[in-house]
Design goal:
The protein is α/β, with parallel strands linked by helices. It contains 15 helices and 11 strands. The chain has 2 domains: 190 residues, Periplasmic binding protein-like II (D-Maltodextrin-Binding Protein, domain 2); 140 residues, 3-Layer(aba) Sandwich (D-Maltodextrin-Binding Protein, domain 2), CATH 3.40.190. The chain is globular.
């Protein structure tokens, strides 16, 4: 009996106490939109599962990457979600570590293009989004990306700033509409510069567009599908355009901070977020379009998402290397022709 008690005591000492798990803290860096939904569907359930504390920092891509760079020697976040191009930039700056996908139990469930978006093993896609134009269907009809600069929308249109994730895709599609879709985006930038007096604002956050449309200050704006939920909630007739030139899109990815103190916990969180259950919950609430191909949603939900194998394969994503190679030139020309 004494021997059994001794063994039991030894095992108890080797077993982590609940209080130790509760002291673990995971700090993540994310976009600022839909945070109430993320808290309910992702953050709170993960905290309950891991017995840890989740600290969430929000902001746009420029702000958050700058903070990662400023704290490169002593990281203050453990993982981040960014655009594909920002993921490649962060990797090139030595801000991220390679992701051990063998530790992600849900990795095999992802669409192929989400498994290694930049071909360097440094990121994993968690959501896709189409980019098109949201518009007041009782005021105008949108048939082309060129309609953004048409007289019918003069004084009633907002366009994404060049520094946002929606900026370059909008310019890319506008270039197609103008039959000048070169990587330098010169023609569409020049065209916007020529019409800048007709543009209400060059927005940096999708929430700005929801507010402006609710106040009836604008009738149309290019947005990512991930922001569609906010417009659907408005008591106004709004529609998602299907321009004749097609739709572009993008992918957001997860990255692991180089030298982060809680990489094991960060990988657990990534895997949790990529699970069929969590991706389904986010899809059903129109927060994210799923990168997990096992997610199944009702047709009325699917029509509001970037959803399904065929849709994913049809996405025209601007290659990250192309975006990074041209970013400075885009910005320089934008400042010259459009300014702020």
């Amino acid at each position: 009996m004494k021997k059994r008690l001794t063994i039991a005591l030894a095992l108890a000492l080797l077993t982590p106490m609940p209080g130790r798990a509760e002291n673990r803290t995971l700090t993540i860096s994310v976009y600022g939109f839909a945070q109430d939904a993320y808290k309910k569907l992702v953050y709170d359930p993960f905290e309950a599962q891991c017995g840890c504390k989740l600290v969430v920092e929000t902001g746009n891509s420029v702000e958050r990457l700058a903070k990662m760079e400023a704290n490169k020697g002593s990281p203050v976040i453990d993982m981040a979600v960014v655009s594909m191009a920002d993921g490649l930039q962060a990797a090139r700056q030595g801000l991220t570590d390679k992701i051990d996908v063998a530790r992600l139990g849900n990795f095999a469930k992802l669409y192929d293009i989400a498994k290694d978006p930049n071909g360097d093993g440094m990121s994993v896609g968690y959501t896709f989004y189409a980019t098109s134009i949201v518009y007041r269907s009782d005021k105008v009809r949108i048939d082309s990306w060129a309609d953004l600069l048409s007289p019918k929308l003069a004084g009633h249109v907002a366009i994404a700033d060049i520094g946002t994730n929606q900026g370059p895709p909008t310019l890319f599609m506008l270039g197609k509409a103008l039959d000048k879709d070169t990587p330098d985006l010169a023609a569409p930038i020049d065209a916007i510069g020529a019409h800048k007096a007709d543009i209400v604002t060059f927005y940096v956050r999708a929430s700005q567009i929801v507010q402006l449309m609710q106040q009836e200050e604008i009738w149309a704006a290019p947005i990512g599908r991930f922001a569609w939920e906010g417009f659907k909630k408005m008591n106004l007739p709004v529609a998602w355009a299907n321009p004749k030139e097609g739709q572009t899109g993008g992918m957001n990815v997860m990255v692991l901070t180089h030298g982060g103190k809680n990489q094991d916990l960060a990988l657990q969180f990534m895997d949790f977020w990529l699970s069929t259950e969590i991706q389904t919950a986010l899809a059903e609430k129109l927060v994210d379009s799923p990168a997990n191909r096992e997610v199944k949603v009702a047709p009325e939900v699917a029509e509001n998402l970037t959803y399904g194998e065929d849709t994913v394969k049809a996405l025209e994503l601007i290659p990250s290397a192309v975006a990074l190679a041209n970013r400075e030139a885009w910005l320089s020309r934008w400042n010259e022709k459009v300014g702020q």
